[in-house]
């Protein structure tokens, strides 16, 4: 199908902008057909007809998403602007975060102090280790003294009171070493827990701080910014619109009566206002089963198969979804049709009305499946 024929196709679509009725597109020149249908008498002719469904819609970028705020705050800084190409995880906006900055600083100080308390040079652990060493030294002395008095007592060289006093000192030192060791372990474990808690708290505050620095989720183009610097932004409120900078798709709306005719994979011919007479080719990629009750249409998406338009957001388009292609069918001018299924013919000098069975049709021509032949003479009705 040539580009000129595509253009003729959209000449017909322009005349149908106010309705979403199904049309049948004829691949031969419409002008020739109109001239022939203007005569009083005519004969059915075999022509190539293409059945299509009219649709209208817009162009949108793929992977479109709205960038939202995860915290409340005033928009302090805008780093990217409409039309800019942005990369994944690039910071685009910054919110005022004085209170959060203070929380983050406090959490960081506690975390650093916890690290120092649990480090190899921890003053708290050093003090406990020093006390434990002193207790062990005393235990060693008391142990020697106890053994000496024990031997003396066994040789009746000392009194029982002195022996028991030495034994008590030894047991006391032994218990003291055990208690100080337990205290050292208990304190070390507690300092470790404090370190992990402070680290977690710091990470939470650091992540919360990231909420005030709004970044893009993926590479793309910044199409629209909803907030200005200095304005208050609420948590969950949209700040900007971002989409793919290179890939676009057509979002179409068709009349509900035509929805059952459309299937995924069907060819779509698209005319975009800003490109004047240029026609783009696409294919149906997705059907949405929910009816839009406001205008009684269904949504259909189409992917461009050849050249695609520039990624301008929301460009207005008109389209024909090719339902079937008929290389050779018997056709008559539409103005010869009487009602929905009859025509007047001339036969043996007489004029009579007969019924036909229609096939596809467009603005000017109708396919005749049965009831007429090429030799039939059609006449306009009264």
Provide a brief overview of the structure:
The protein has helices at residues 3-14, 30-37, 98-118, 123-154, 160-210; strands at 23-26, 41-42, 45-61, 65-68, 73-78, 85-86, 91-95, 213-215, 220-225, 232-233, 238-243, 248-255, 267-272, 279-292, 297-304, 316-333, 337-338, 342-347, 350-355, 357-361, 365-370, 377-379. It has 382 residues and is an alpha+beta fold. Helix 3 runs antiparallel to helix 5 and helix 4 (123-154) runs antiparallel to helix 5.
Distance between the termini: 38 Å
CATH topology of the largest domain: Elongation Factor Tu (Ef-tu), domain 3
User: Strands of the biggest beta sheet: in what spatial order?
Assistant: 3-12-15-14-13-16
Structural class: alpha+beta
Number of domains: 3
Amount of beta strand = 35-45%
CATH superfamily of the largest domain: Efflux pump adaptor protein, beta barrel domain
Radius of gyration: 44 Å
Low-confidence stretches: 9-39
Helix content percent band: 25-40%
**Biggest sheet details:** 6 strands, antiparallel, barrel
Q: What's the count of strands?
A: 22
What best-fitting shape do the alpha-carbon axes yield? Answer: rod-shaped
Task: Look at the structure and give the CATH class of the largest domain.
Answer: Mainly Beta
Any idea what the CATH architecture of the largest domain is?
Beta Barrel
The helix-strand sequence is HEHEEEEEEHHHEEEEEEEEEEEEEEE
Quote the average pLDDT.
Answer: 86
């Amino acid at each position: 199908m040539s580009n000129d024929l595509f253009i003729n196709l959209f000449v017909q679509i322009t005349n149908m902008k106010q309705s979403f009725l199904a049309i049948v597109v004829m691949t031969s020149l419409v002008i020739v057909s109109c001239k022939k249908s203007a005569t009083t008498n005519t004969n059915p002719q075999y022509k190539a007809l293409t059945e299509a469904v009219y649709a209208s819609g817009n162009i949108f970028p793929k992977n479109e998403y709205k960038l939202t705020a995860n915290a409340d705050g005033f928009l302090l800084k805008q780093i990217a602007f409409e039309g800019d190409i942005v990369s994944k995880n690039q910071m685009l906006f910054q919110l005022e975060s004085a209170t959060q900055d203070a929380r983050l600083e406090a959490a960081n100080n506690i975390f650093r102090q916890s690290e120092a308390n649990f480090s190899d040079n921890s003053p708290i652990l050093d003090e406990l280790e020093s006390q434990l060493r002193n207790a062990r030294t005393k235990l060693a002395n008391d142990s020697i003294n106890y053994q000496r008095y024990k031997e003396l007592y066994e040789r009746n060289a000392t009194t029982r009171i002195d022996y028991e006093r030495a034994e008590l000192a030894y047991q006391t030192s032994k218990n003291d070493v055990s208690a100080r060791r337990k205290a050292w372990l208990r304190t070390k474990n507690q300092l470790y827990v404090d370190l992990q808690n402070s680290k977690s708290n710091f990470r939470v505050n650091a992540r919360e701080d990231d909420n005030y620095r709004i970044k893009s989720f993926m590479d793309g183009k910044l199409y629209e910014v909803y907030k200005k610097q200095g304005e208050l932004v609420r948590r969950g409120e949209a700040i900007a619109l971002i989409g793919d900078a290179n890939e676009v798709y057509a979002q179409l709306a068709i009349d509900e009566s035509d929805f059952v005719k459309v299937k995924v994979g069907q060819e779509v011919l698209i005319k975009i206002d800003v490109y004047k007479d240029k026609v783009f080719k696409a294919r149906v990629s997705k059907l949405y089963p929910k009816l839009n009750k406001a205008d009684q249409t269904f949504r259909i998406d189409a992917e461009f198969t050849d050249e695609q338009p520039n990624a301008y957001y929301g460009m207005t388009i008109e389209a024909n979804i090719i339902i079937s292609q008929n290389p050779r069918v018997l056709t008559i001018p539409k103005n010869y049709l009487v009602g929905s299924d009859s025509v007047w013919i001339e036969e043996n000098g007489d004029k009579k009305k007969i019924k036909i069975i229609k096939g596809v049709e467009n603005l000017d021509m109708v396919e005749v499946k049965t009831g007429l032949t090429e030799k039939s003479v059609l006449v306009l009705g009264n």
